[in-house]
Amino acid sequence: MLGDETIRDRLWRIASRQRGYFTAAQALAAGYSYQAQHFHAQRGNWHRVARGIYRFREYRDLPGSNTDHLVRWALWSGDRAVVSHTTALTVHDLGIANPTEIHLTVPPGFRKKDPAVVLHRTDLPHSDIEQHEGFRVTTPARAIAECAASLVDQDVLDSAVSEALERGLLSRRRLLRAAQDLGNRAELGVERALNSEAT
Fold it and tell me: Per the database record, which ranges form the AbiEi antitoxin N-terminal domain (predicted)?
């Protein structure tokens, strides 16, 4: 019994940094055989979220966040995905973006697919990534520039830029530099948003 408690404590420590989520590989490393994992899922101790991804039952009774589900996608990707584009705007609580799909940026060689996510393939510089609890997300400047490059509605862009400047999250210069890094479409969209803010 003591051994089981030690194993559970070990897995709980991992899961607590991931809002209660964990992978089958993490459970195996903590000491749970695949047979034991099946048992805990069958008993309802663990909630099976997706293939190879679980969540401790207790987390269903704890207050959650509207970004909890993004941890699941970070685990799905093997921690290679970064939340980006309009999904990143919602994480940063910028503007009126309300995406129906989850946008993730992954390295060019990433092969997994899922109909619930939109994948963007590029190598992100470390300076454009922030760590949140259990997942990574593009910075506010990068998220805005990504949205501009993707030609999101100008209203979404305008509202995100307005709030980012108002809250002091970034300067006009920093925002323009981020847009220039992503090309002409991004630069044009951000300039329009900045001009709208100035009027």
Answer: 13-56
| Whole-number Å distance between alpha carbons of 42 and 74 | 24
Task: Convert the pLDDT of each residue in 165-180 to its tens digit.
Answer: 999 999 999 999 999 9
The packing angle between helices 172-181 and 140-149, to 10°, is 50
| pLDDT 10s digits, 86-119 | 999 999 999 999 988 999 999 999 999 999 999 9
Query: What is the pTM assigned to this prediction?
Result: 0.89
**Does the pLDDT at position 2 exceed 50?**
no
Residue 34 one-letter amino acid: Y
Q: Please give the DSSP secondary-structure letter assigned to residue 45.
A: S
CB neighbourhood size of 79 (10 A)? 13
Helices marked H in 64-153: 68-76, 85-91, 140-149
Residue type, 141: A
Inter-CA distances, 163 with 57, 88, 110, Å: 37, 14, 33
Q: Residue 70 is encoded by which pair of tokens?
A: 């993004």
Structure tokens belonging to residue 24: 């089958």
Residues 118 and 99: their CA atoms lie apart, in Å, by 11
